[in-house]
Predict the 3D structure of the following.
Amino acid sequence: MPEALVLSRTATALAAVERALAELRRGGIVVLRDEDGAGGLVIAAESCGLRALQRLQGLAQDAPVLVTTRRRAEAIGMDIPPHIAGSMGDTNKPITLDLPEGVPVDVILRPHESAADNGVASRHIAVRHLSRPVASHAPRIAETAIELAKLARLLPAVVLGPLSGDPGNKRRDWAREQDLIYVDAADVLAYEDTASRNLQQVAQAHVPLEGAENARILAWRPSDGGKEHLAIVVGEIDPTAPVLIRLHSECFTGDLLGSLRCDCGVQLRGAIAEIAKQGSGVLLYLAQEGRGIGLVNKLRAYELQDDGFDTIDANEQLGFDADERIYAPAATMLTRMGIKRVRLMTNNPQKISQLERYGIEVTERVAHSFPANGHNENYLRTKAERAGHLL
């Protein structure tokens, strides 16, 4: 297949997913179809309005169901039957729940709110009226719907309206007739990897930094115009030798506001200072706030932490995995900068294995930790004891 055609199809697939994400975030309906012809109508649970829900009910071929992750289902008080729990093992796969008429979707998906909230009683009533988990009519569609919600930085919970099989591949035309956004399941599941491989440098500028005046910032963007990542280059890089680098996931509260709940701000500034001290290096600033769950969900996790959960349990109570980050974008940026061997500033062994998975050789791990500040002791303890960080 000609390269131009491959690039065109890739751009089209990325754009289709981006449109679906925007539609979910505004409370609209998205049409999903997998390669076997199974399909479904999807609305994000946290933005599901009455009008959209009624329209979904009118278009679906069967009663809508609630799909969420196993951990989210357990957090809202669902008992997972042994035969379903046993088949899932320890994974966080989607769970499908009957959604009786009259149960407000937005209420059952907010156990992170304060118990003092006036809606707590109605939440408990709603959970009691949810049926036990049921077998999904199309597991691939349920999995894809949850992935869409995660990519949109929404809670991993959706209302799914089943559609009949589509062996003739007419679902796209039907969606257009109904003025609905359509997306293929395969494009959704491949989105993160595809967007990472299609990162292109779109801008750069000399930006003198405190303690590192000889610094440039390079901006990288995927072809669909999605999430942008940055490379902060200090000094002159010699790609023939291992380059000192730091992978830093964005943290609005720590990096910009100086939050004491984490160590992100001091790690960011400390890394830039150390790179400048050693003469040269690169800090990759990755757009994956809150270990990949987004800023709003990170604030929701903070509420749960205030109720006694640690950082990992809080993310899992919301229905996410403990860490949703990926490092394919970092590997792509390094490769396109001509960097194949690195000295990695990190305490997280996962970053080493992830970079090596994508073909970047880590010749040395450079320790990068800072003392607790009186507010983040539990945070640092959890990173060491449960996430395996080398602190």
